[in-house]
Design a protein that fits this description.
two-stranded parallel ribbon; two-stranded antiparallel ribbon; mainly alpha
C-alpha cells in the first residue's frame, strides 16, 4: 500500500570515472570520492550498505581483510567523523527526515540498516493513520512499510525497541494512549492550518 509520507529509497550506484585498485593510494582516493557522494545521497546510511555499494560498482564478489582496510581508510577520508554507535554515517546538515522504502528490488534494507529515527517516524505515521492500533499490528504494518515480508526475531527486536523508546519519550504507558495523543496533536496542527473542520 502506497503512503503519502514515504518515498523510494535512492541507492547511489554511479560508477566513478576511475575505479582503480582500492589497495593502492590512488584507488583509495577513487573510493573516498565515491563514498562521499554515496553518503550525501543515502545518509543516514549504514556501513554495511556502503560495503554493498562498493561491491556493486567495483564488481567485487566479497570484501576481504585488505579491501576492508582500504574501505576503512576511504571512509575516514570521506567522512572524518565516522559512523555513530549503530554504524550509520550522517550529514552535518541533513535534509528533513523521510521514511524511505524499497521500490521493486531497489532500496532493500535489513532492519538493522534502517536508522532508528527513520523507523520511529514510520511508527508515528502509522499510528496517526490508524483509528486504533495495538503493538502487534503496529509491528506488522511497520515491517510492511520497509518491505520485510516475514517478521523475524531481528525485526521484532528493532521495532520493539523503537516502540519502547517512543513511548518512553512521550511518557505514555500504552500504545492506545500514544495513539490518542499523537492523533490529537495531528488534529490540532490541521486546525491551526485551516485543514480540519471544527
Amino acid at each position: 500500500m502506497e503512503r503519502d509520507w514515504t518515498r523510494p529509497y535512492s541507492e547511489y550506484t554511479v560508477r566513478p570515472a576511475r575505479t582503480r585498485d582500492p589497495k593502492t593510494l590512488e584507488g583509495i582516493q577513487d573510493l573516498s570520492e565515491f563514498f562521499l557522494n554515496a553518503i550525501r545521497v543515502e545518509a543516514p546510511v549504514h556501513r554495511d550498505l556502503l560495503n554493498d555499494r562498493f561491491k556493486s560498482v567495483w564488481g567485487a564478489a566479497r570484501v576481504g581483510q585488505q579491501i576492508r582496510s582500504a574501505i576503512d581508510k576511504a571512509l575516514k577520508r570521506a567522512h572524518p567523523a565516522g559512523p555513530d554507535s549503530h554504524g550509520f554515517f550522517r550529514l552535518d546538515n541533513p535534509s528533513p527526515l523521510e521514511v524511505r522504502v524499497p521500490d521493486n528490488e531497489c532500496g532493500e534494507r535489513k532492519a538493522a540498516q534502517v536508522a532508528p529515527e527513520e523507523i520511529e517516524l514510520a511508527l508515528k505515521q502509522i499510528v496517526l493513520d490508524a483509528v486504533t492500533i495495538d503493538e502487534r499490528t503496529l509491528v506488522k504494518q511497520a515491517a510492511g512499510v520497509f518491505g520485510w515480508r516475514r517478521v523475524g526475531a531481528d525485526i521484532e527486536e528493532v521495532l520493539g525497541q523503537s516502540i519502547k523508546r517512543l513511548l518512553r519519550l512521550e511518557s505514555y504507558s500504552s500504545m492506545a494512549m500514544a495513539t490518542s495523543a499523537w492523533r490529537r496533536s495531528r488534529d490540532e496542527r490541521l486546525v491551526n492550518r485551516g485543514e480540519c473542520n471544527s
